[in-house]
Specification:
The protein is of the alpha/beta class and 176 residues long. It contains 7 helices and 5 strands, in the order E-H-E-E-H-E-H-H-H-E-H-H. It has a single domain, classed as 3-Layer(aba) Sandwich (Rossmann fold). The chain has a 5-stranded parallel beta sheet, with helices on both faces.
Amino acid sequence: MNIFILNSGRCGSTTFIKACAHIKNYTSAHESLLTETGSRRFNYPENHIEADNRLSWLLGRLDDIYADNAFYVHLHRNPQDTANSFSKRIDFGILKAYEQGILLHEQHLKSPLDIANDYLETVDSNIKLFLRDKSRKMDISLETIQADFTGFWNRINAQGNLDDALEEWKTNYNAS
């Protein structure tokens, strides 16, 4: 079974995969097929855990391939903290792509925080819509990660070292 960690970014997805590295019966990666296109973009190995915030823009294609035959996690964090983190990254990455590519703002017409909040609302809505008919799904919050990750571990019947996995959450990877 494949597992997809759907998220906006800036919510612990890098750390999630670091924690998943302690699972022995699944492979895991963060944005492993980022540069691929076509069918190769979804060519994940079996029993793999993938976190990639760009999947929130590719949910129709993800559904075409995996439908209800995968396990989905909606990973999120306090929206204001996430927006604040994203607003520091207005000139690169996915927030730049959203502002310039989706909103077609060639220059900053809104504040970075306004853009970040709009992006987060869009991504959250996309993920919620995608998950509404999925039978294997879980909501995980960064604010309750120790309990939520333990629940995730149990739901997927993970084998490995849970204590070491939980220890990963004490390190702040990829901070703004």
